[in-house]
Design brief:
This is TIGR00255 family protein. The protein is of the alpha+beta class. The protein contains 8 helices and 7 strands, in the order βββαβββααβααααα. The strands form 2 sheets. Strands 1, 2, 3, 4 and 5 form a 5-stranded mixed β-sheet that branches. The protein has a two-stranded antiparallel sheet with strand order 6-7. α1 crosses α4.
């Protein structure tokens, strides 16, 4: 199973005149981060809400909204009339002194600190249970969305890995020809500058072996195959949270591709290396979205 970190979940429930609406939007993120917008009535339960979401979603950047409405309106609020009167007297006095128009002071007063505060009403146990059930329903909806997105990510990643494996096979096919070209080029240079009859055959063979060993890419290609195989094994793993592990394996794949390119010293092989790098970058972009 593979899950994406992106998705959207929504749930709504109603009991009598009270309705509860939960909306959750999830994006990719290195850790678990929540931007929580909740009714003041839910402040005592904020820790429970965050804990429940982390248990279910594990990782990602979340925008969460939980609204409790009654008769189509949010829960009652309290207006501090004494504080509003004090603000009114101070504002009108200042306006008179500065000879400024007073305009719609009521609208200004309602926005001043502590004038309007949430009511002291608290949720009952049954009401909190309704909120919790609605939140779980929204989380389930989001999780299903993540699974659907994950299947598409998995298919794309498998294709990228298959392409890299195919291109590395082309490199293996070209490698013996590359070695022959290197040998012929070195022998030609020695014959041109030293003279064919003046070349020590045994010494030349030793130097060629040493030089070709420095340019040998067989170990890099073998390690690359192992990394590709391990990447596929992780994709099949039952643990849905494996984005970081896949990212680490892609780093190792990139290291072998880069070393192959730097040691190859061959234009034909370099073309396949470029294609492998292109597939690798596309895979890295996709893995950023994996849970």
């Amino acid at each position: 199973m593979l899950k994406s970190m992106t998705g959207f979940g929504r749930a709504e429930s109603a009991r009598g005149e009270t309705s509860i609406v939960v909306e959750i939007k999830s994006l990719n993120g290195k850790q678990f981060e929540v931007n929580l917008k909740i009714s003041p009535l839910l402040k005592p339960y904020e820790f429970d809400i965050r804990s429940l979401m982390q248990q279910t979603l594990q990782r990602g950047t979340l925008d969460v909204s939980i609204n409790i409405r009654q008769n189509g309106a949010t829960r009652p609020v309290v207006i501090n009339t004494d504080l509003a009167k004090y603000y009114y007297q101070s504002i009108t006095m200042l306006a008179n002194q500065l000879e400024l128009p007073q305009g719609d002071l009521l609208n200004v007063l309602m926005k001043l600190p502590e004038v309007v505060t949430p009511g002291t009403e608290q949720l009952t146990k049954d009401e909190w249970k309704d909120v919790e059930d609605t939140l779980r329903e929204a989380l389930t909806d989001l999780d299903l969305h993540r699974q659907d997105e994950g299947q598409m990510l998995k298919a794309d990643l498998q294709q990228r890995i298959d392409n890299i494996e195919q291109y590395s096979g082309k490199v293996r096919e070209l490698d013996p020809l590359r070695k022959d070209r290197i040998r012929q080029r070195l022998e030609g240079l020695l014959a041109e500058h030293v003279g064919k009859d003046n070349v020590d055959g045994n010494r030349l063979e030793q130097e060629l072996i040493f030089y070709l060993e420095k340019l040998d890419i067989s170990e890099e290609l073998s390690r690359l195959e192992n990394h590709l195989r391990y990447f596929r094994e992780i994709l099949k793993d039952e643990d849905p949270a494996k984005g970081k592990k896949l990212g680490f394996v892609l780093q190792e794949i990139g290291r072998e591709i880069n070393t192959t390119g730097s040691k190859a010293n061959d234009a034909g092989i370099q073309q396949w290396v470029v294609l492998m790098k292109d597939e690798l970058e596309k895979a890295k972009e996709q893995v950023l979205n994996v849970l």
